[in-house]
Amino acid sequence: ALWFTEWGSNQIGRITMNGEITEYPIPTTNAEPHGIVVGSDQALWFAEECNKLGRLSFAHKP
């Protein structure tokens, strides 16, 4: 799967090899995300144009 930032729609997107798209909204208003990387914690980290870092994790907490 490929992960990408959606600058104009304030979301992080994921597209599979089959073309299935899933979008995850960013709770920060006007975040305008740029850049994305998988961190050592296996979460997705991205820069928000509002001077914040965002983190998207799929780990389940017990």
How does this structure look, described?
The chain contains no helices and six strands. It has one domain (2-56). It is 0% helix and 50% strand. With 62 residues, the chain is an all-beta fold. It starts with a strand and ends in a 6-residue tail after the last strand. It is globular and about 35 Å long. Strands 1-2-3 form a three-stranded antiparallel beta sheet, with no helix packed on it. It has a three-stranded antiparallel beta sheet with strand order 4-5-6, with no helix packed on it. The mean pLDDT is 92.
Taking strands numbered 1, 2, ... along the chain, how are they ordered across the largest sheet? Answer: 1-2-3
What form results from the Cα inertia axes? globular
Classify the beta-strand content into a percent band.
Answer: over 45%
- Average pLDDT confidence is 92
N-to-C SSE string, H for helix and E for strand: EEEEEE
Uncertain spans: none
Rounded to an integer in angstroms, the radius of gyration calculated over CA atoms is 12 Å
Q: Compute the number of strand runs.
A: 6
The biggest beta sheet reads: 3 strands, antiparallel
Distance between the termini: 26 Å
Helix content: under 10%
How many separate domains make up the residues? 1
Count of DSSP H/I helices:
0
How does the helix and strand content classify structurally?
mainly beta
